[in-house]
Amino acid sequence: MSRPEPVDLTISEALAEMREGKLSSADYVEAHIERCEKHAGLNAFVSHDWDGLRQAARAADETGKAGEGLTGIPLVLKDNINTTTLPTSAATGALRGWTAASNAPIAEALFAQGALLGAKGNMHELAFGITTNNAVTGASRNPFNPDMIPGGSSGGVGTAVGARLMPGGIGTDTGASVRLPAALCGIVGYRPTVGRYPGSGIVPISHTRDTAGPMVRSVADARLLDAVMSGTRSSGETADLKSLRIGVPKPHFYDDLDPGVAKIAERTLGLLERAGARLVDVELPDIAALNDAVGFPVALYEFKVDLANYLAENGLSLTLEDIHAGVASPDVKGVMGSQLGDEAIPEALYRQVMSVERPKLQQAYETCFSENGIDVLLFPTAPLPARPIGDDETVAHNGERQPTFTTFIRNTDPASNAGIPGISLPAGLDSDGLPVGMELDAPAGSDEMLLAIAQAVETVLGPGEAPKL
């Protein structure tokens, strides 16, 4: 077999080649820069410094430590993660060109292990959406069909990793924003238990719901980045599929699926069953209502408080009104504006949701896992594949026009609101050549188990296919 091109190597594979002296960081980085320039029309990035990246790669080689830790590996970080060498704008007007005085703790942890800042990824403005059709920075494009959305809000990272412009990256996920673009771009997207990684130094929506997460091309790479950002040591073990009980929540999560998604979901279940996993039909009763009671009240109330705190902590003399004035995307303008006026979520409602409604949702998950004796839940990450750029309000789904935002996040949002971990794995391409993802969710705090199970499932599903760019 011919040796893979550098851009086709996963992070783990590239590190191994660097350690063996078969690949330099400089050559690895140059191959990615060349591909980035060739496919600049995908609009994956908000900012980059190719000369600075080349210099950093040469410096990594000169230390003789390329391949150790993450030394010599370029990563794309979502544009809401503070970095000192490239601006952090959250892809919104009022923050364009602003550069943080210090790196976010998760970025600092990655850089301390030798990772290089490859670029900052485009995103849905202020992370408030799932299309990454941004009126300030332009729309990011799906590498499998550039007329389609890559998902969001971490769409630029999804585009970059899916298109092999960068070997991996870090997004943030409030309700779908790591897992959805991963599913739509044919890569792995991991959302850890909230609190597993430090959340400071990241332009926020909601401290209850936000978390950073790896976006990569293999579960091994997700485990590698997870260990660095969480300060833990990965066991590296792969779960035994024959010992697993996998919950299949057909009601809600498998309802009204796009035919292509339904076909791949059924194939996934069949492959796992033939591999020896025990599939268990389960339900999460009233999950839609439980989730609806939590999602928007928490996110919208905390957004005002958390964003104001972020601006103050970073020495930015901007008000929420200043940020709103710089918003150009109509959907984001509307939702933020609603919270600066009479429609704002009242504190009393927020307190009631946090003390009563959210615990009900969390209990529903705990009961489902414990009473059914299951290790994980498995379901399609999104009910439909990527849809055309510009379908910001409604999308075509099974013969009807349905709301874009709520339709795409239907399956990912409940776990986000419960604070439990989930990972989306590439499961195949539909008849139009668009990727479909399958998500595994696990109980809060069981991240190591989830990653070990995901690695086992990945051996059955195989790696995500590369786009024909």
Automatic annotation (TrEMBL):
Pfam families: Amidase. InterPro entries: Amidase, Amidase_CS, Amidase_dom, AS_sf. The keyword Hydrolase applies. It comes from the Bacteria. Residues 28-451 form the Amidase domain. Signal peptide: none annotated. GO terms for molecular function: hydrolase activity. The keyword Hydrolase applies. PROSITE patterns: AMIDASES. Keywords: Hydrolase. Belongs to the amidase family. Hydrolyzes indole-3-acetamide (IAM) into indole-3-acetic acid (IAA). This is Indoleacetamide hydrolase. It comes from Hoeflea poritis. The lineage of its organism: Bacteria, Pseudomonadati, Pseudomonadota, Alphaproteobacteria, Hyphomicrobiales.
